[in-house]
Specification:
Length: about 300
C-alpha cells in the first residue's frame, strides 16, 4: 500500500516538476502571458518562484523515497527536534499548555505529553512554575522550556541553535547534563554555537565556518592533536630553573608552559625535572583551545 502511494506521489511530483519548470522558464523568457502579471519584472519573479516550487516538489519526492513513506504523513518530520535561537512560544499559554500543544503537533497524545513534560520540568526544577504563562518567564526559564518542547516527542535528530545563550551557570549545567544523557541514549545532536568551550566539552566532531565557508572539519580529538603545540605544562611549587631543550618559558597563573625545541620530547623534560629534584604537581602536554585553533585557521584564511 505504502509503495503504491509513493509511486503515485512520484508520478504526480514528476508532472508537477515538469509543469513548473516549463511555466517558469516560459515566464522568464516572457514567452508566456500570465494573467495579472503584465510587466516583464513580474513575469520574471513569478518564473523563478515556479522554478523554486519545482525544486520543492523534487525534495518532497526524494524525501518520500528516502524515508519509505509519504512526507505528508509527517512521521519523518517527527524524528527531528529543532531549537531556534529566537524564542517562538505563545506568550499567553502556560508552560505545561505549551508543552502539551507542541507535543500534539508531533503526534504525542495529551497524557503522554503531560507525563513527559512534568518529568522534565521536575528535573529542571520548574515543576512548581508549570502554570506560569510564557510571558511571565525569565529568559533562562523560557530557554529551558523551549528545550523541553524540542525533545518532548523524543526525536532521533536534535538541532540546537545557540542553546546556552543567556543561561546562568546552574541552567547551563542542567542543559549540558541533558545533552550528555540524550547523546548516551543514541540521539544525534547538531549544535550551533560561538562558545568554543561548550564544543570542547560536549562534541565528538567539529565543523568550523568562517564567512560562509568551511575552514575546519573532523574529529575533535584529531583536530586538537593536529594543532597541538610542541610544549608541556608544568605546575610546581618552586622554580624550574634552566632546562635543556626548552626555548621559552611562559607563565600561566600557577603553571608554566615550556616550549620545546624539535629535538627534545616531553618524556626527556620530565626526566630532567625529576633528576633536579623539582616537585611536580602537574605535568601534561599542552593542547591549544578551540578558540586558539579558530583564530589560527581564520588568520591563515585571511592572509
Amino acid at each position: 500500500m505504502a509503495t503504491a502511494i509513493i509511486q503515485s506521489i512520484l508520478i504526480t511530483a514528476g508532472i508537477g516538476i515538469l509543469l513548473c519548470l516549463w511555466l517558469g522558464i516560459s515566464a522568464i523568457r516572457a514567452g508566456l502571458k500570465i494573467p495579472f502579471y503584465r510587466t516583464r519584472q513580474q513575469r520574471i519573479v513569478t518564473g523563478w518562484r515556479l522554478i523554486g516550487l519545482a525544486f520543492l516538489l523534487a525534495i518532497f519526492a526524494w524525501a518520500s523515497v528516502r524515508f519509505g513513506q509519504p512526507l505528508a504523513a509527517f512521521s519523518s518530520w517527527n524524528k527531528i527536534g529543532y531549537l531556534p535561537e529566537e524564542r517562538g512560544l505563545y506568550k499567553k499559554l502556560s508552560i505545561i499548555e505549551s508543552i502539551i500543544y507542541f507535543a500534539s503537533l508531533k503526534g504525542v497524545d495529551r497524557q503522554t505529553a503531560l507525563e513527559r513534560g512534568e518529568n522534565l520540568l521536575k528535573r529542571a526544577e520548574l515543576l512548581p512554575h508549570k502554570n506560569k504563562k510564557i510571558e511571565e518567564l525569565s529568559h533562562g526559564m523560557g530557554q529551558i522550556t523551549q528545550v523541553i518542547i524540542t525533545i518532548i516527542h523524543e526525536p532521533d535528530l536534535i538541532i540546537l541553535d545557540e542553546p546556552f545563550a543567556g543561561l546562568d551557570p546552574v541552567n547551563t549545567q542542567l542543559l549540558k547534563d541533558l545533552i550528555r544523557e540524550l547523546r548516551s541514549n543514541g540521539k544525534t545532536i547538531i549544535m550551533s554555537t560561538h562558545r568554543m568551550n561548550d564544543i570542547e566539552e560536549l562534541s565528538d566532531r567539529l565543523l568550523m565556518i568562517n564567512k560562509g565557508r568551511t575552514v575546519l572539519y573532523g574529529d575533535l580529538t584529531e583536530i586538537k592533536s593536529k594543532y597541538r603545540n610542541n610544549s608541556v605544562v608544568v605546575e610546581s611549587p618552586g622554580e624550574l630553573g634552566e632546562i635543556e631543550g626548552v626555548i621559552e618559558q611562559r607563565r600561566h597563573n600557577r603553571s608554566m608552559e615550556l616550549v620545546l625545541d624539535d629535538k627534545i620530547t616531553p618524556q626527556m623534560i620530565l626526566e630532567q625535572l625529576v633528576k633536579k629534584g623539582v616537585a611536580v604537581n602537574r605535568f601534561e602536554l599542552s593542547t591549544p583551545s578551540l578558540n586558539e585553533i579558530f583564530i589560527k585557521v581564520v588568520g591563515k584564511e585571511n592572509e
